[in-house]
Amino acid sequence: MNGSVKYIFITGGVVSSLGKGIAASSLGLLLKQRGLNVVLQKFDPYLNVDPGTMSPFQHGEVFVTDDGAETDLDLGHYERFTDKNLSQKSNVTSGQIYEAVINRERGGGYLGGTVQVIPHITDEIKSKIMRAADENGDIDIVITEIGGTTGDIEGLPFLEAIRQLRFELGKQNVLYMHLTLVPYIKAAHELKTKPTQNSVRGLREIGIQPDILLCRSERPLEDEIRKKISLFCNVEKEAVIEALDAGSIYEVPLRLSSKGLDKIVIEKLDINCAELDIGWWEEMVRRIQSPGKTVEIAICGKYVHLFDAYKSIIESFIHAGAANDVKVNIKWVNAEMVEKNGVTEYLSDVDGVLIPGGFGDRGIEGKILAVKYARENGIPLLGICLGLQCVVIEFARNVCGLDAGSSEFDQDVEHPVIDLMLEQRNRSKMGGTMRLGSYPCEIVKGSLAEKLYGSVEINERHRHRYEVNNNYRETLKDNGLIFSGLSPDGDLVEIVELQSHPFFIATQFHPEFKSRPQRAHPLFKGLVKTAIEYSVSSAGKAHQKASQDR
Ligand code: GLN
Question: pTM of the predicted model, to two decimals?
């Protein structure tokens, strides 16, 4: 595309959790598949500098980028939909904005002026919005999602900043898309447009007239309803777009495109681009929707009632399922319940087990029991981060006979087979100080890891403070644990596996951050493939039969 960079802003109204992130990602994909160079970013109005210090209860998963930023989980969707790796700069919070302005003030940067929300905070927001285009190469379109909901006090400076940008850059270069809810009221048998009207009124009071309304609804929006919304909200009827609940998030771009979203965007922004080329995505969605068979994989963790905490893992299973032509049913297993009720009740009928990452000691013993059960019964297992640490503790205890643990949970444990990394010992700040982001890992030839990756050199993303204690490497190795992936200097254990088991592998890094719908991650793909084999094998059948007989 020739000409100036175009900016699209996505705001949300009425309630949160309407799927702004998926809407932004979908639009990103559609524009990319029209040959445009698109970058996505998210601006979050909260005061934390990043979500790295927030609990999963507050925030869901913390998504880690290659360059080690701890970001909002929507960035995971952006990366998965547009297949573009994002950076630290793609997630900006009020905390970062205020930090920059206050630091400048302390440095005397405002030359005696009074520092104010308008213009100093809004200027900082605008400069951070625009840098996405400057620093990502030849960008045609910057899509910026504004977190929160219209009407939130803390979101006002962001809305003011994007209002100013349209004024400064011109209508042909800035587009506002607003996501709202059109609820169905059962008692009245009617879809209601009032919440949307109110939300748009709120935006217009700030000076933002949306160009496109995406209306989330559980029922189709009849013409009459769209006409009404159009009239009251001052948005053309064609630009009032129905966004029905979808079975899979990967279906959303197809649906939105069928309602004309990408066409309207390029018309409004006067963009010259190619026709939409999305056949391969349709094919992928078909595979997700009509799988050949089903396998059941347990995720044994601590936040199992909070699906957002494991977002990228769930998506990785969808990708790996599509790649293997199966549907992966996730069985959520609360590690604390395993501790309480024993493992058999939860794992006797599954075809695979995943132990996810986590912090703190809650549920740890349950996870260790789950590892032991998978190891002893030949059930395919993948451990991630804390999952690897549980694998090592279990092996040290039950195979090497050590009274082993992690110093994260017990400072006085006799054999701390998992210990704080050296560089972490003198850290006093908690935010952004873990071993974060992409690091190289060298894989041992002939290992399961090499077979899965088809390579001996990989790069994966990390988020941890603890590691395998090298003082125990020899004992663990002598007893049969294979260290199949190490940091290039050999100092950090990155992958462990067992040979005498169909699929037993654990990683200190987080493979889930790099899985893509079109490129399922090799470890997830391998786990699902072996789970299929296990489910039809005599071991799997016998195992499940035994549990039914009990
Ligand atoms: N708590 C562990 C550590 O800090 C594991 C972290 C994780 O699973 N992301 O090393």
Answer: 0.94
